[in-house]
């Protein structure tokens, strides 16, 4: 084995070929079990899925649509079990005309259908267990199973909580709030909670907002008067002419304690309000908690948060407050390979009354504008940002930016009309994540390997190149696993690629998985032993229709539409995924 590691490295799996078809494919010697599909019951006695019978009441008891982030937290809490735990999954958005027979598009739903649609959003928590035969199963009578929806009771915490700009009919104090939606990526904290990112929330709103006092903020967020979905037609909460402050209740990182199904999820305002892809937490050498997060829009920014208090391994109650106090920073890159984190602190520099801020809460509510004023570097759509637990470096997935011009090219965003994205590696000086100065390097520049401007390891195969990095995770050896969203522009399926990040095989990416046509690949997450790999297949069959889907994955039943699902991948006969 030592010899083969020397020859092939730690990722010796047989590479999968590029391709595009109706099926999910994984590298030879691996198997993919469909663990949970849209509509699968999450509770004993919950109704079975039937696309012609779907209703809000049924959907609230079933797995939601368009699974994105996937987190696995071992049971019992604090253990590192790899065969028993809680699976927590985001349901980012829907496309009703792909989901139900005869359904109109998402902006044409009647009130009942809009409510049904709403309940397919949010998150699912479900206990799962690996049986002796190696198959995983849902535990339907588990006390932990939970659906979190856009109507779940939640609370704002931190500096923006109680800000008068947040007051609405549902939130007399600016502290109470309801629900979460547009949940893209996320992270699992060392204290066993889930962070979920509210991303493209503008899509859910409609109505005139010129009397809101928030025009600049809302325009920057992409809000329009047009009703792009149906919730804003039927429910005042999403009609900005009726509830002008509601958009300020979203765009946050929400912390959920999956071990307490009665717990009220918390919107952690100290992490700022923008289109959060996700957030990932790392414990710094001095015990402070550092969270990294990207704002996924063209020319938006990269952020980090450093907690005021320190992590206490034996005091979970205290850790549950860590994301309420601390300092948020935005990133400014220099072309010489250095970078600086600029603190977003009310009263410092341009973040003053003169510029329209009257509290730290205001700075966080207008985070994008505050970062503009500080001179943060506009990026090519920052998606997942995660710390490699083995080498302590930070990896940033930048997915694309069609609007970058020649003049706007810079070190970390080196291409104009960037179609395929790139991956940056950030290194804290002396390994200290709380410092303001880091260095950065380009890990790879994605796109067809022979295209001008791409950059990979010179030994990359015909199938090793990728496009549009989006989500990522690390196995227990610190190898980087990259999930993509957009590779179909090159007539190949999205999927998963893996590479080492140190030594002679650094950035030598290999394809491991292909999604079915239309789908992007989200989630990816390993159990602690790296022997089980959870992958979320989002929007299979996209750009086709319910009547004539381009795939009916995973059921291939003529009465079933394609169904977004989480699969779990294992090595045939067992062993580390990637070996
Ligand atoms: Fe929901 Fe950033 O992709
Ligand atoms: Ca994403
Ligand atoms: Ca991730
Ligand atoms: Ca994406």
TrEMBL record:
<dbReference type="InterPro" id="IPR008557">
    <property type="entry name" value="PhoX"/>
</dbReference>
<dbReference type="Pfam" id="PF05787">
    <property type="entry name" value="PhoX"/>
</dbReference>
<protein>
    <submittedName>
        <fullName>dTDP-glucose 4,6-dehydratase</fullName>
    </submittedName>
</protein>
<feature type="compositionally biased region" description="Basic and acidic residues">
    <location>
        <begin position="403"/>
        <end position="412"/>
    </location>
</feature>
<dbReference type="InterPro" id="IPR006311">
    <property type="entry name" value="TAT_signal"/>
</dbReference>
<feature type="region of interest" description="Disordered">
    <location>
        <begin position="542"/>
        <end position="579"/>
    </location>
</feature>
<feature type="region of interest" description="Disordered">
    <location>
        <begin position="399"/>
        <end position="420"/>
    </location>
</feature>
